[in-house]
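Exercise (ungraded).
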Amino acid sequence: MQDHPLKDEPKEKVDENSGVSRRDFLKISTISAAAVPILGTKVVQAAGEPVKVYGPGKVPVELIVNGQKHALQLEPRVTLLDALRDQLEITGAKRVCDRAECGACTVMIENKAVYACTVLAIEAQGKAITTVESMMQGETLHSIQQAFVDNDASQCGFCTPGFVVAFKAVLDKYPDATPEQIRHGLSGNLCRCGTYHGIHLAIAQTTQKGA
Amino acid sequence: MPDYNWPDAEHRTLIGKRISRVDSPIKVSGRAKYTYDYHGANMLFGKILRSPYAKAKIVSIDTSAAEKLPGVKAVEIIQKPGTTAQWAGDEIVAVAAVDESTAEDAVRLIRVNYQPMSYLVSDAEPPAGAGEAAGPMSEDDIDDAISNQVPDAQLAQSLQEYGVAFKVDDDFLNDMKGEGASDAVLAAIRQASYHAAKGGGHSAYQKTAAQTHGDPDKAFAEADVVSEGLYGAPVIVHCCLEPHGSVSEWTDKDHLFTHISTQNVSGIAAQMADPLGVSAANIRVHQDNIGGGFGSKFAADRWDITAARLSKKAGGKPVRIMLERDAELKVAGARPSAYARVKVAAKKDGTITAWQSQSWGTGGPGGGGMPPVPYVFGIPNQHKEHTAIRTNIGPARAWRAPNHPQAAVITMGALDDLAAKLNMDPLDLWLKNLEIAGPRRDVYREELAIAADLMGWKEKWRPRGQNVSGHIARGLGLSIHTWGGRGHESDCDLTIHSDGSVDIKMGTQDLGTGTRTTIVIVAAETLGIPIEAINLYIGDTLYPPSGGSGGSTTPGGVSSSTRRAAVDAREALFAKVAPALNAQPADLECVNSTVRVKGDPRRSLTWKQACSKMGAMPLTARGHNDQLPSKNHPDLTNSGVGGVGMADVEADLETGIVKIKKMVAVQDCGLIIDLKTAESSCYGALAMGISYALFEEKVMDQATGRMLNPNMEFYRLAGLNDIPELVVHMMTGKGYDERGVIGLGEPPVISPGAAIANAVANAIGARVSFLPITPDKVLAALNVTQKAGA
């Protein structure tokens, strides 16, 4: 598990008298479904450390998507995927399984492929979020995208953006990745139409070019 | 009359070539918009409370707390108290709220009292004597079938087969119409013969009439070899990556605008009109792209009607209901199961003489029909019995090539076991019996030879269990299949503008099969211009209607209507251009973006120059394809294809894990419009076949009545690393091209499961009876064989 993103930021004044015990804190984070008045952000002592408490209710969230800053008001329980799709209408990442099983929602956070359905929007603040929409340069497709077109690696196309972004994440980190490494990098993505043959060919084309 | 016939091979510049699908660039770049991506202004989010019970009477519903929750804009009771929920996940109440989480909160505040009832979700072999002969249908039977979404064809067949136990009157017909019965079903009710009511209760096990052809008893008695076995395929689901759902908004009090994920753009309005009390003419339906359908998205579903009702209650604001993944897997359609105990007889030389099967399976509340066994092979002596199990697993829907993959698993499995018993190479057994393989027998002969060559069958094949190295066993298997096709009803409007631009409008949809690409290739070929010069508009009821994409009828339908529209538009253009070229219209041709005099290419105008002769008014031609081939002159489509699937597999005898090493598909489909997307349909079908052969099953729990794996971790689909070398060969040229266009959605997905099951049997020397072929079943089959051998 990654560290809580706010653990190392004890800048805010700690509210010693927030009345939120560790037990309550856990309750709040798990039962936030109940309608509770908006509390805003506060910092409380939890497990002996200052912890920023978001919500329940809407809180300001700032996301940096494809280099552009977006100021949003979101409930803390909103996922990055839903913030992108429903708030920003950036819809390339798809909602399919909604629990980190299929990869259709793959985006990059700081150059790492993640399932946007399983990252909270508040966790993604202050980090560079890259979606499939950023990959074209003007009217020119990225070489990975072009390889998908050339090899007919999409049919209904619903899984395709996820595959393309996961592919890019591998190549960004390992520019000389072998086909096997790329296949490993795409093993968290699923397709229902069965475009895998085309994807195998797209991998071959991309690695041959050394793109 | 203009010549609509497809151009000869030497005159084709685009048809039959490998052309990249025209909508790939927007799909790979995330710009393609799907229904789930549509976000209307002030859109509300709909969520549905579903029955936790497999069967329960709804006693009371209290929505007061949900209605009071801030942000909730509308609440709609879908099934009133007194009605019976028929499967876990059945829709009870829906809410619309300002955001998704508020809608989820509101659903949790709804209180429903249920009276749970006994249910059945198991499709295990019926207990002996449990089957009840199906009798004439009562009013309740028919009502249940309609509200349980039993497919029209199945219900009509039951009505025809069993008749009705009551006098049908107009009141009843009107009631059923109100329940959503289609015209076809209403006609079947009207035509059903009357029989006195049957006695007895409603058994979950419905025995269909036994069928006997020839003299099976005599044939079995005289047979040299008889092979017996158990074969089958479980219920699987469609698992479309874009779930079912829609966004509906009332643009005024009488006009509905629906964005919906559908295979049936032109057929949705008529389904929504009655339940919403609005005329179909006032319903606009739109869809840009669809994230998978596979047969499950023809209907305006209950949740779609509900979204429209919630929108009305919320003052017309758009309301989105897209199913959550668990709901999608629980309620949005399933492929019926089919299992059979089979006995098959042959002479020593491999001539198949007799078939006997006791089959069973479930298609949900409707029970389901007998799979078409024996498949492809018209075995002369047959005796067949089938028991349909009515279960509370949710409704069945068409799944690519309905009933055929199951029939292939049962039939090809039985014949493969027979070959083993005869000590024959199954390829030889298949070839030996092609005389009884129906109208495509000569095609199969040609295809089997090609497939065997591509697989290296003769070099690789070994008798059962004799290709083992260490703990790895290798094996080959094969299957053949057939499907119909033809073209659905389709209208195409093609407009040529005086600046040379061309647009096409058609109320069809592209499921990812390449329908857009097919249409523009046909138009560009006919007009002699590049495909990029054509603007194509599909996916809206503003455009001329075109049929639902099912049964592999879309390529036939849309290519025929487009060809006719393009030929008529071309002729109209020739009439306007002929004077300028000092020629007769009949002397002109469109080639290479020019309009020129045949045989005298110097008398030529560029396409743009030619179109400028039209004057300011564009010209539009309407092309029509009738679903009745006799009404099309000439008929540009055809029906009836044959295909072959072969599998090469590796099974680990210690872990039971099966890996596919290679798959081969050889397929005919008449005149191929785009070879590239046609091949992709086959590659995709092989991958889907690997998936349902090795991994997929809708696992139902009889203790709770629920689906145990309504997610994508435990409802497993094949991934990239499960897919080996795939080889596809399309039959083209003489004998194929001149047949006309035939669709390809169904056929190639039929054989892979059977071929893989047979390859596993060849590898491990034992039959894994039921798909999916999971490691536990492989080890169990090995265990049985070892014990038998010990």
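Further reading is listed at the end of the chapter. For now, observe: Chain B has 21 helices and 32 strands. The first helix of chain B runs from residue 24 to 28.
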